[in-house]
Specification:
2 domains, Cytochrome Bc1 Complex, Chain C, mainly alpha, binds protoporphyrin IX containing FE, 12 helices, globular
Length: 267
Amino acid sequence: MSLERKDEHDHKGWMETRDLSKVESVYLMTLMYLDKRLRIVDYLELLEDLYYKVNMQMPKSHTEQYGLDNKFWYWYPLYALGSFSTLAYVVAAVSGALLGFYYAPAATSTNGQATIAYNSITFIMTDLNFGFMLRSLHRWSAQVMVAAVFLHMLRVYFTGAYKEPRELNWLLGIVLISLTMVFGYTGYLLPWDQLAFWAGQIGVEMSLSIPLVGEWVAQLIFGGFTPNPATLQRMYILHVFFLPFIVTALIAIHIGIVWMQGIAEPH
Ligand code: HEM
């Protein structure tokens, strides 16, 4: 019997001698099928190895070292705020992707009145089945995310978790809270209603107030000195293309660092 055939024979023999549930045998058959073709067991072992190598925890935390656990338990619910921010982000991302099937970013008008962007929002709110719910879910999750991220930052500050060796994650957090707000701002402009238009005007004027490079910044970000179709196009592509990739990657790195360093106990 060739080696491969013998291997297969052994697998089958082993499966027959055990009383496997249907789920177990489907799982094992799938694993064997994939392993034969893609060597996935080898790759899973590599991942497992990596996990143990990378997951080296920091030296004993303050509370462990001094046995202070019982004094600090009341902080722990607040440690959920980072995950809550992530959850809000995921809900916003999924509802946003669905809204993308119906929203059109054009700030031009076909009938000399409402713009295409505004009309698409009206369509979502009035005609689309559960459209109002989808849009509300997106707006609420976005606002909940801003609040959660801010409260998470307060938790990190008041428990002293920003201190060495976690300064880099604090700085990454500053970038994340800033990008969360840019997410909010670019999204706020998308309906291209009065609120959006004048928020755009405020953005233009804030850019123009920057010394020396103000005009250049306004041109770059808003495509002019007053909100115009190019402004909406830019906000749209930032909101649905650049920011999702950048923020998702940064959140993954942020949480990866927490995983590598271990969570900080209150100082
Ligand atoms: C999109 C925004 C953010 C997400 C999704 C996020 C997510 C998380 C998660 C899941 C944790 C694990 C511990 C916990 O949940 O409390 C964490 C820890 C941490 N975060 Fe954030 N975070 C965000 C923004 C920020 C901001 C704005 C700061 C501060 C400026 C920050 C600084 C930190 C630090 C220093 C830790 C380590 C804390 C420890 O070890 O106890 N994060 N983050």
